[in-house]
Structure formats: structure tokens, C-alpha cells
Design goal:
Blueprint (H helix, E strand, L loop, with lengths): L1 E6 L5 H16 L5 E6 L4 E4 L16 E3 L6 E4 L3 E7 L9 H17 L6 E3 L2 E7 L13 E12 L2 E9 L19 E2 L11 H16 L8 E7 L1
Parallel strand pairs: 1-2, 1-12, 3-4, 9-11
Antiparallel strand pairs: 2-6, 3-5, 6-10, 7-8, 8-9, 9-10
Length: 230
């Protein structure tokens, strides 16, 4: 059974990292349930293992944390839903590539509940949406903006870190970094797309679509009842 926790107040990044690491160790030892943790962070930047110094454009704007997950620089802050996934990848076939694809498909399925078509692009991490409402790109193609990011780390085949989906963050806060090292595309959110979606709306969509993506994996029986973390 996968447990679900929701934090109502923004969670400091060091506190979240310590919690995830401890939970992953507990799951690996058979002492804790798998967990999806929904939360927000105060405004901050995180650096993944592939982060490049030149992509931190404004290092004094917000605190910067070494995330020790895959990927490059990303922004987290109010109005962005974080879903940290502490799941046993070992029991799910030990296929990290497929696991990451499942996370991408989960994001896409949740966005579809709001009639937003999320797409994956080779060579570009995250989930993207086409922006036909914007001027064409220099090469004549339709512009695309990033709406969700993801990155994980494993401890003895148990995942932690996870994904982030932009509901209504301050998009100017992304200006302090080159998000995920990609300079040629922008960032958007559900509200920026003109959709009056709330954090609670997205949480419902994430819970409703989770089981359809992960139901065929050992140890997963779909979402359990929600709990609240102070």
C-alpha cells in the first residue's frame, strides 16, 4: 500500500531532504510504507548532479541547495506542487528508465484532467506544452514551454525526490537560473495557460491518475487515504 501525505505549510528544503532520506532507508529496510508526499517549498533553487555553474544566473536571489538528485538547476517555490515519490523501484522491475517514464506519464495524465496536453521531448527533461498563442520560434516551429520537472535519486532501489508541476508560481523566479540547462524554451503554469486550477484541484488529479500508471507494479495498491503533515 502506498501512503499519501500532504503538507499545508511550505516545507524548508533541508527538512524535506532529511525526511526523504530517512523514509527511503526505512522502506529499503522493510520498516516503512511507500509514500507520496505532496508539498510546497519556500522560494529556492536546487542543483542536481549535472548542474553547471554558468546556469546559476543570479546566485544571490534565493537560497541554493545541493539536491544530490539527477538533473541540473531547478526552481521550487509557492504555487508549485511538489510530489516526492518514495517508492520501491526494486520491486517494480529495477528498470529506472521505465520508472522515470511512468512518472512522466503520471504528470501527463494529471494535466489531461484539465485538458492540457503535456508532451515529452527527446533531449529535454520534463513535460512540455505547445504554445500556439505565442509567436513562432525562429525556426518556424510552435513554441513550447515547460510546465513540469522531475528528477530522482535511489537508495538501495528506493526512489526519493520526484516531480514538480507549476500551478501558479511567480514565473519570474525562474529567471535566476537556466531551468534544467535549457535556454531556448520558456516556463509556464496552469494558471498562466488561463486555467483557474487550484493546488487542491491538482492534488485530486494526481491521486486519481496514480493508480492507472502504477497499478501493475508489485507492492502498489493505489492511493491510500490522505494524511496531513504539519
Amino acid at each position: 500500500m502506498v501512503a499519501w501525505l500532504t503538507s499545508d505549510a511550505p516545507v524548508p528544503y533541508p527538512q524535506a531532504l532529511a525526511f526523504m532520506e530517512a523514509r527511503a532507508k526505512g522502506i529499503a529496510a522493510g520498516e516503512a510504507e511507500e509514500l507520496i508526499w505532496l508539498l510546497e517549498h519556500p522560494a529556492l533553487y536546487t542543483a542536481g548532479t549535472s548542474a553547471r555553474v554558468e546556469d546559476l544566473v543570479d546566485p544571490d536571489r534565493f537560497p541554493v541547495f545541493d539536491a544530490r538528485r539527477g538533473g541540473q538547476y531547478t526552481y521550487h517555490g509557492p504555487g508549485q506542487r511538489i510530489a516526492y515519490v518514495m517508492l520501491d523501484v526494486g520491486k517494480r522491475g529495477r528498470d529506472v528508465r521505465r520508472f522515470v517514464q511512468d512518472l512522466e506519464h503520471w504528470i501527463i495524465a494529471a494535466l489531461d484532467r484539465f485538458n492540457v496536453t503535456g508532451e515529452i521531448r527527446p533531449g529535454r527533461v520534463g513535460v512540455w506544452v505547445a504554445r500556439p498563442d505565442k509567436p513562432l520560434a525562429p525556426d518556424g516551429s510552435v513554441q513550447e514551454d515547460k510546465i513540469a520537472a522531475l528528477g530522482i535519486r535511489l537508495h538501495k532501489w528506493v526512489s526519493f525526490h520526484g516531480l514538480s508541476i507549476n500551478v501558479e508560481p511567480d514565473l519570474t523566479h525562474f529567471d535566476g537560473i537556466v531551468p534544467c540547462g535549457i535556454r531556448d524554451h520558456g516556463v509556464t503554469s496552469l494558471v498562466d495557460l488561463g486555467l483557474p486550477v487550484t493546488m487542491d484541484d491538482l492534488d485530486v488529479a494526481l491521486r486519481q491518475t496514480f493508480a492507472a500508471i502504477f497499478s501493475d507494479t508489485p507492492g502498489t495498491a493505489g492511493p491510500a487515504a490522505a494524511q496531513t503533515v504539519p
